[in-house]
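Hello,

Our lab assistant flagged a job as stuck in the queue for most of the afternoon. It eventually completed. Since we weren't sure the result was trustworthy after the delay, we are filing this so someone can double-check. Below is the sequence as submitted and the structure that was eventually returned. Let us know if re-running is recommended.
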Amino acid sequence: MKHQTHRSAATGAAVIAAATSLAALHPALAQQQDCQPAFNSKSVVDPPQDDLRYGSQLALDRETCVVGARGSAFVMQRGNASWAPPVELIPDQPDLYGFGLGVAIENDWIVVGATAANSSGAACFFRYDQPSNQWHHHSTVFPSNARRDAQVGFAVAISGDNAVIGAPEIIRNGFGQAWTYHFNGSQWVEQQTLQPSDHQSHDHFGGAVAIDGDVLAVASQNKDNTGQTWEDGMGAVYLFRWNDAAQQWQEEAFLTSNDPIEGERDRFGFALDLQDQTLLVGTNPVSYSHNPAGSAYIHRYDGHTWPYEAKLTASDGSGADRFGAAVALDSGLALVGAWGVWSTGDECPFPQICDAGAAYLYKRDGTRWSEQAIFTSHDIAQHDAFGWDVELWRTSALAASFADDDGARDTGAVYGYDFANGDGNCLPPTLRIDTDCPNAKAATITWDATTPGGRVALVYSPSPGTHTVPNAFPCAGTRIDLNPNGLRLALTADSDPNGAGSIHVNIPNPACGGQLQLIDLTNCAISNLATIR
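-- returned structure --
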């Protein structure tokens, strides 16, 4: 349900006020919420087609989802309760081979990879036209230095006016590359080639990418971190941050699994999602001696580095589940796909169903992540691979079953779910800010999923970091994701009876690039970081 918002008594206040003590916050009690999934719709292509593999990739932005398929891509829109039938995206060029393998969406832009176009691959940009309520092909980009069989567009991501396009070179067993593109107001212009200094053949750099604001991540899922043969590649993730002074993306961190399976291929970085200075990394291990279930890892930026925060595993995990082969992150929730899960048990003889698949939902509480729910298909069938890809936005979840056979062999399907508990939803508080830096003046701050009628506090810092509310202050012991240098209380406000709120504030230009975080003063739950940009 979409929350109504109201203007609080804080409307019109300056968001960057004089330093205010956290003692102004009210005391709080901890509260635990659980999430329960409810199926709402199953999306299929009509008529069904053999080997379409609808659901090979998913990308979700609010209530619009782009679905990758074999040689095609589709857009589906959420209505009041369920998802409308998909509409196919039509590129201007008919010979974009491999179209649909990588997909991304944000606001009015969709990016679709075409991995075999022009021998090396390409990426297509589509733009939404509001008067016609249609998506139109805007342009196709071909990176200037891509090698033959590079598979450009295997992975794509977009944030604001920036996009990143990966080319893992799996076919040619190459190093892999990635490119950033910037929208200059009329065209998407190639900006920078990304390739780490320690690259090696078979690394598959660019097999997964993610971008959020001024941070992007590129995975080398097959990187060999053991010094042995390439078959033992454990995987790695490289993080880059935009340096405005240098006008380029600069490598900031190199991450590997903190508990790799010795001598096996973890493929750390097989899947990625990045939001609000939090990185979710999935694995898809290939074992030569045993079958690990898989895992996913949370890393959170502390203002300087990207330390490990948590490892996610399935409560009922067993061998070859492929847990971590797909991941999604949104506002303190994580969804992890496990397309190899069998219907019951850890073996797959008749009458069990092999590769039925599942998806697992997790919720953040401070630095702890706890499993909240398990999603499975209501019409489970052999080798459907439910959870092949997953997506998440607020209390809406999607799980792809690219090998679903309803009406045709491997035609594919996408399942939609909502999750809530009783009379409230299970979301952590969600914070958003709508402004336009560097000329920020008036801005609108909105939030939801807080205690109905309760009081909230908005805290500001110039940069991300880690700070624990000291003893003797309300919400003592609560960890917030802000740098203590420059930390200050911006304002307090009241949520409406639905737990939502909206305020208008004035933001001085020096605050651009800073971070806001909300604290629910009833239960001390914290929101995502919202960047002023």
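-- support follow-up --
The delay was a queue issue, not a problem with the job. The result is valid. The chain has no helices and 37 strands. The CA atoms of residues 237 and 255 lie 5 Å apart.
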